[in-house]
Structures are given as structure tokens and as C-alpha cells.
Structures
1.
Amino acid sequence: MKVTFPHMGNQYVGTKVLLEELGVDIIIPPKCSKDTLNTGVKYSPESICLPLKVNIGNYIESINMGADTIAITGSCGPCRFGYYSVLQKELLKEAGYDIDVILLDPPQGDYKLFFERIFKLTGTKNPYRIIKALKKAYNVLKAVDDLEDMTYYKRPREKVKGSVDKYYDTFHKDVRMVYGYKAVSKLIQETKERILSVEEDPNRDVIKIGIVGEIYTIIEPFVSLDIEKKLGNLGVEIDKSLKVSRWLNEHLFMHPLGLSTEKETWESAEPYLKTMVGGHARETIGYAVRFAKSNFDGIIQVYPLGCMPEIVAQSILPTVEKDYNIPYLCLIVDEMTGEAGYMTRLEAFVDLLRRRKETFKGEKLLSGY
Ligand code: SF4
């Protein structure tokens, strides 16, 4: 059995560690590219969400490299993600790829079914071995997400442009070549030291933007057209509302115990959106409020064309913008999104935030504060 899985930002590093620790043969799909998207678009319905199209491209690229089984996560809830596994299996079949799909839904209390699927995937019935591997995978995922956070801080401050990306991109190339928890952890640690050593320019006037929106678009850099790099190179430090390690912690460890780390976020969203409407719309609103309260200079929402939950959030965010006096930009992406237009909108927004900050500074000086 050769197992593959779809890309979603750093998730592949954790999945790699999980399956390698359990001795499963894996095929990591090539980094998402225009070719991946074109393949996905060819075999997917035109109106389906962009993430599904990219996933289909990932699977076909992996199948062409020898994969015969796909492991995917699913969800319930009022958005199309709940149908992804069934739909993807059908689409692959129609395209001539009759392949085994193992669905790894968050357990939501049903640990028996969850472990049965893991047993099938891993070929072991030893729950202790699986739990140990899950813990290692989570640790690695958290460490890579922390590493990425470090790039958000360093990139706008680096003295020599491109230094952070040189180390971070090398990590993503090298991590495919090493095997198992120890080797991956060592590589993360080495990369962390390299990025930390990047010299900073103390005179940079860095502004801060909070990124909110649909989870896949925020997390997978190919789909958001590398928004973190583009903004970093414009002198912007970012923070993202959603991360894979946070999602995993929430669904795998907190929810089954009736707990959540998102209580503060939901409370922040409550005056605008009281309930879950699918996807992460409530988190989009909640984090926008939290970013505004933490003195961020602006908020950017990114989501794929036709994403129902984020359309709801988009209709609310202008009210948050007004209530908290924080500029907001909405970027909607699909397979037709042009890089030049996207970049122009980012540059214009960043210019606006800088001018606004300067004006505030001037006003404060004049008023003697
Ligand atoms: S959150 Fe949006 S883009 Fe993602 S599956 Fe649901 S509807 Fe599609």
C-alpha cells in the first residue's frame, strides 16, 4: 500500500511523520503548482470550491508517482467540505482512477470508528503505537507552524531581502528527503536557528495585518498566492487566524473533552454572528475583532470564489471595520486570479495603512501625546 494525501500548507510534514512512525509507505504529492491546479480543474465541476480542485490535482500527481491509497480528512457541518471525500472518490473514478480512499474524520466522540480507520491505514492494531505517533506528528506540526510564525516576524525586518525565504524554502525541500520524527525535528531546529540568525534592520517601520478567511486558502500558500511572502516583502508582519496545528489540537484533543481554545474568538464574534454557519466564518469574524483589539493596522480576508460561509463573513466584516475603525480588504481567489492584479491590491492596501499610521503619528505629535 502506498498512501498519499492532499496538500494543505505544513500539514504534509505532520502527516509524513505520523505515517512514517507507523511504518506506512507514503508518497508526498509534489508542491502545489499551476500544473496541479490545471489537472484538478480538468476533472472537477466548474462551480466546486477551489480547494477541492487543487486536492484532485494533488491526488492525480501522486497516483502518477505510484500511490494507490488516499487518506483524507472530512467534516460534518453546513458546507461542502462534508461531501469532499465522497465527491473526490467519484471524480477520481470518473477520471479513470479507481483508488482506495480512507476517511479520517475528526472523531467527534466516536473514537472506535476513528481508530478502525487508522488501523486500516496503518496496518497496526496497537493503539499505544498509534497514539505515540499521533503525539509526535502533532509536536512536529506545532514546531513547523511556530517556525512559520517566526518567518512572519523576520521577513519584514530582514536586512538582506530573501534571507528568510532562502532558509525556509530549503527546509521544505529538505524535509522530503529525511525520514521519521527525529530527523524532521532536527531539521526544524536547525532551520529555526538559521532563521533566528538573520540580521534585522532596526529602522524598518513594520505594520501589522491580521489574515482571516477560509481555512484552506489561509493555510495553503499556493492558493493565497504566497500572501505571507508578498506582504512580508512589503514590510508587513502578519498573523493568521487559522493554523493546521491549532485545528488539529481543537478537533483531536479538545472537542472530545468538551473543551475549546476558541471560546474567546466565539465570544468576540457573538455580537455579529451568534452561531456556527459552516466553515470558519465565526472564527473569521472573531479573529477580525481580536486583531482589531490587539492594535493591528489592518485586516485581510481571503477566500475562494463561492465559499458560502465566507460570503456570510464578508457581509459582516464592514461593520467590524466601522466599529473598530480598522481598514479591511477582501480578496477572493479562483483559478483565474491574476498575480499582477492581486499584488496591486495588496500594495495599495499597504500604502493606505502606512499613510494612515503616519497621519495618526502626526496627530499625536500635534496634540502633545
Ligand atoms: S469552507 Fe468554503 S471553500 Fe471550504 S469547503 Fe466549505 S464552502 Fe468550500
2.
Amino acid sequence: MFEILRKSFATGVVTTGYPLAQAEVSTNACGRPEIDFANWKDARPAVAACPTGALACADSSGTRTVTLDLAKCTFCGLCAEADAAIGMTNVCELAARRKEDLVTTTEYELGSGGAHQKLLGHQASGTDSQRGPVEALGAELKARVEKVLGRSLNIREVDAGSCNGCEVEIAGLNSPVYDIERFGIHFVASPRHADMLLVTGPVSRNMELALRKTYDATPGPRLVVAVGACGCSGGIFGQNYASLGGVDKVIPVDVYVPGCPPNPYALLHGILLALGKRRV
Ligand code: SF4
């Protein structure tokens, strides 16, 4: 007992300062792919390598429209292996309130052989603009929880067909390093005690009814956060005989958290974003 106490004191505080401090993500971690749009010669090899359809292109009348949809991206890095114009970053704070904010669209004029000749336009995703404000949110997080819900925030986690990769990261939120309880945020065992549903998985057809019932059992105002590529879009499974293709196919979603799986910083970022929006 005394030995444990001695070790605890010797270790000191291990809890991250996030979101007041920057997220300490390993430089080896795979986050959002970054594309050198200005010097991109041809999107087709990277599009062919992408296993989820996150990177897609469509040609029409001498132009090509290329889209990168972070809701579908598993951060696998195959596009970066196929094309030197693409690199993988460790950027993980990518949550968005609207699914369309996760999409980057770029248009090129095509030259001979289908190569890019000229960059015609670029519409960045909305996630970049949201990374700055989350640090400001951290300072007033507790006040915001109280203002939005009048007390602490209770989360019910719902596994709607996940591989459990997201659950491993969610469990990390309760570890001494991320310690989500310091914000007055708790995980609860019943949707009847919950303010927020944190939903993982592409929503298997066997889980559809359970998810609907869980949503209905959660008292309003309630928030729904779709977690991971599967929760955002169906991920690698998409929509098929066994999978409905994402949480918003079944219940309304307030915030989408991309990643495969999203790390605890990304989850915390998404939860903070959700607290800025209330469904009455
Ligand atoms: S990282 Fe993987 S899933 Fe994401 S765009 Fe690249 S190839 Fe597609």
C-alpha cells in the first residue's frame, strides 16, 4: 500500500492539459491525409488505391472534380503510398457538426492523358476552422456543461456494430492521462440517465432497433455524437446487407468524429463541439 502511494507521488501528475494545451499526439500517428493540391499531377492512382471511397474523382467536359471525405477516411495511408503529392499528418481534431464540413473539393482542368493541367478551384473542409476555437472552449468547458445541461454531462456509449477499436479509445478517456471526469463528464450505464449518446459502428441491421430504442429512452435535450469512420459513414463497410452505413441513417447526429479509430483527443474534441449545440 505504502509502496503504491510512494510510486504515485514519485510519478506526479500525468493528466494532459488538453484542451487548454495542445494535443500531444505521436508524430508516428496517422491522422488526416494532406494533399499538395497545387502540385498534384493526377488524382487517379490515389483514388484507385483508396479502399473506402474517401478519395474520389469524377471527370466531365475536360475538368476533374476530386473529393476527400474525412467521414469515410480510415487514415490508412494507402493514398500517400500511391502518390508523392499526398502525405499523412497526425492531425486528429477533425470533428464537425455538419457532415459536409468533412469534405474537401478540388477542381482541375485536364490536359492530355487525363493529367491535371490547371487548378481551377479548391473548397477546404470546415474542420480546419474548428481546431482553434476548441482551445478557447477548454477554458469555459465546465461552465458550458452547466449552461447547456444545468449539471454534469452524462454519456451513454452505444456500440452499434463496431469492431471495438473505437471502444478501446473511448476507454482511454477514463484513464489518468485523459481523465474526462475532470470536466464533470461521466459515462453512465443507462440511456435514461444520459444527456449524450456516443455511438460507434456502421449500425448493423441487427442493432438498428436497439439504437432507436436507446435514443428514444434518452431524455431530451439529448446530444448524439457519431464516432469513427463507421459511425460517420459506415466506413470500410459502407451500406450493405448487414450495415446501414452510419449513425445518421437511424437517428439525428449532432457531431461527427472521423478516425479509425479516433484517439481520445479527437473524441474529446468532438464532445466539446457537441456541447456547443443542443437538440431540445
Ligand atoms: S488515408 Fe486511406 S481511406 Fe483515407 S483517403 Fe487515403 S487511401 Fe482513402
